[in-house]
UniProtKB/TrEMBL annotation:
This is Glycosyltransferase family 1 protein. SUPFAM superfamilies: UDP-Glycosyltransferase/glycogen phosphorylase (SSF53756). It comes from the Bacteria.
Length: 301
């Protein structure tokens, strides 16, 4: 059994029963730790307990970055194999030239407001720096549910604030339902910089998509985004981390504007990487199955 996601609604007790059943039947468990902090949970307690059960019972632990592996070692005394996230955008699309656009476009996508998101301080910091970046503009996207009064996911404070900024001509506001994949790729390539408005998190599939498409990412200094792919780090506005050396978001955006970093995955390298990821998984499965066979032989002898 290989667990990546999907255990949010499973209690630690139920997970312990599952891992015990696997062990009783001599079935190995592999766990890939994508999230050390669940982006959908306001508090970390439940996810910490769930992940602790899985990691401690696993026959092999994988994760995406060296930073996450170090945290796993500190928290559970387990060595995690670092296997990078594969490409998100298919090779044919990732190989296309970026379409030209006017000006310098910074994007903040509010999406449907997961617990780990805090977009308004991020949007305000971008607005503050726009005057120092000639020709720059801020595009803010938000899903219809967040911006619609009466909807169960309506965020009145977010809607009111973004509407005020739009009325003042400070942001280009787009309200829409979920993008299709093609719409999302078009959107990302319409940006020079995509700012991740997270107050906590670990890794990001959005960052991988931007890397495939050549869009620079400004990522907060929580989690291990900077270990995952090239990006600009900034200090989380709403929760300054003790000892953080990350600059304010405005400083990171000025760097993006001045230097115009060209961070884009080579599609051929991504293909090679995907093959290597598959090979590593195959080896991990072979190893844990061999260990299980040995364990089973010992138990029956």
């Amino acid at each position: 059994m290989h667990v990546h996601f999907g255990f949010d609604a499973v209690s630690p007790t139920e997970l312990a029963e599952l891992t015990a059943e696997l062990r009783r039947n001599n079935r190995p468990l592999v766990v890939t730790v994508h999230d050390l902090r669940n982006p959908h949970h306001v508090e970390p307690t439940l996810h910490d307990a769930q992940l602790g059960v899985l990691v401690e019972a696993s026959d092999a632990v994988l994760t995406l970055t060296t930073g996450a592996a170090a945290e796993i070692r500190r928290r559970w005394a387990r060595e995690a194999l670092v296997v990078p996230h594969p490409h998100v955008v298919e090779e044919e699309r990732a190989a296309r030239p970026r379409p030209p656009h006017e000006g310098f476009v910074i994007g903040v996508h509010v999406k449907s407001l997961r617990a780990g998101m805090d977009p308004l301080p991020v949007v305000d910091q971008v607005v503050e720096v726009l005057g120092d970046l000639p020709g720059a503009r801020l595009r803010v996207d938000a899903h219809t549910d967040v911006m619609t009064p009466g909807h169960e996911r309506h965020a009145a404070d977010v809607e009111a604030h973004l509407r005020r900024l739009e009325a003042a001509g400070l942001v280009d506001l787009y309200v829409h339902d979920y993008f299709t994949d093609d719409e999302l790729w078009d959107y990302l390539q319409s940006l020079d910089v995509s700012v991740l408005p997270y107050r906590f998190g670990t890794h990001s599939g959005w960052l991988e998509a931007c890397y495939d498409l050549g869009t620079v990412v400004a990522a907060p200094d929580c989690g291990y985004y900077a270990d995952q792919r090239p990006c600009l780090s900034y200090a989380v506005p709403s929760a300054q981390r003790v000892g953080s050396r990350a600059p304010a978001l405005g400083v990171a955006l000025r760097r993006a504007f001045d230097e115009r970093p060209q961070w884009r995955a080579d599609p051929h390298e991504r293909r090679r990487e995907r093959s290597e990821i598959a090979r590593v998984h195959e080896q991990v499965y072979a190893d844990v199955l061999a260990t299980a066979r040995t364990r089973g032989a010992v138990c029956t002898s």
